[in-house]
Amino acid sequence: MSRLVLLPLFLALLITACDSNVMDDEDMMAMTTLRLEPVFDGQPLVMGSTYTHNGTAINFSAARVYISDITLIAEDGTETVIQSDPLTVPAKAADDSDVTHTVSNRVIFAKHDHAHHEYDLGHVPVGEYHGVEFNVGIAGTDNRIDATQVPASHPLAKQTDLNNHWSWSNGYIFVRLDGQVDSDGDGTPDTAWETHLGKDNFLREVHLHADFEVDQEGTTQIHVMLDYHKLLEGVDLADPVQRICHTGNNLPVANAVASEISGSFMFHGVHDSDHDGHDH
Question: What is the pLDDT of residues 72-86, one digit of tens each?
């Protein structure tokens, strides 16, 4: 299967300018975005709202997910990997030695508790596609960079409000969910719960198979939903033992959440740039 890695747009334009045999980018590329919409069992996910989960009232105060290795699968099988401007920072290699590492993969840090839903994917080839693939989590050396050296505007930067990074050895928190759960049966969430999932072995792949088209008319929005109810399906927050999970301290909960990741994302359609809800 052929694989196309998208370079930053300025480099693509430079290559085009140097080779008269290469088609003008405007003739074959189009702007795209990813809309990652949070829901809870079909309802919009709203921070502080009360939901029923496995028979227990809960709410959310934080809902954050890392997405990486975003890949569009063309009709002919070509894979277009979404890239970004390179970021070079100190990191740790697999053997724990000090290295300098360049992150070129487009990373999305979906902060649903801040109502961040739409993310630029840049220019991709126009044409027919059969699906979208990505990882939930950060893979390899990208997950072992020094987060304190990352510019604040980058998704991998150390956050100032809620922790998104444990350490060089443990890496990023791939999924962070915080909230309250009803502990006394009166229907009002009153006790804290936390589910924080990370570390290399909990990275999961998501494969969404659907036919869609990217054309040159405006910006094409790829619309995907994330169901947090499904994500927590295997967790019983009524059980005090399952309420606090920081991955290593509660592996049963970590495994339960990880097992639901791939099935928690749903392809919802492709829309025009005006976001009027019209599917191509």
Answer: 999 999 999 999 999
